[in-house]
Amino acid sequence: MRTSEEMSAAESSNDRKERRRHSPWTLEEIEALVHGVEEVGIGKWKQILKSKVIQPYRSEVDLKDKWRNLTKVAFSKTMVMRGIKIPPELFARVKRVADAEKASM
C-alpha cells in the first residue's frame, strides 16, 4: 500500500505528462513519408523527420507506426485507410519499397 506522500508524488509526475492529441495524417505527410523511405530507406525515421512537409509534432515512432500501417494496408485486399483517400499509385510505391527491403534481407 502506498503512503499519501507516494501517491501525491505519483500524481504530480502524471500531471507533467500531457497526453498528445490525435492529429490525423494529411495526404501530403503520407506522400512525404513514402518519398523519404524511398530516398533514405526504412528505419531512417530521424532523417525523414527533417522533411518540412511532415508536421513538427510527429515523432520517429509516429513515422515508424504509420509506415507499418501503410505496408499492412498496401498488402491487404481492400487498400483502404480510415479517414483519408490514398491513391493506389502511392500504395504501389509502398509495396515496391517493402518488397525491395524484404529481398535485401
How would you describe what is shown here?
This protein has five helices and no strands. The protein has a single domain, classed as Serum Albumin, Chain A, Domain 1 (Orthogonal Bundle). The radius of gyration is 18 Å and the shape is globular. With 105 residues, it is an all-alpha fold. It starts with a helix and ends with a helix. It has helices spanning 4-16, 27-40, 45-49, 60-74, 88-104. The mean pLDDT is 85.
Sum this structure up briefly:
This protein has 105 residues and is mostly helical. The protein has helices spanning 4-16, 27-40, 45-49, 60-74, 88-104.
The span between the termini is 50 Å
The name of the CATH architecture is Orthogonal Bundle
The arrangement of helices and strands along the chain is HHHHH
User: What low-confidence regions span 5 or more consecutive residues with pLDDT below 50?
Assistant: none
Write the layout of secondary structure elements.
Blueprint: H1 4-16, H2 27-40, H3 45-49, H4 60-74, H5 88-104
Helix pairs in contact: 2-5, 4-5
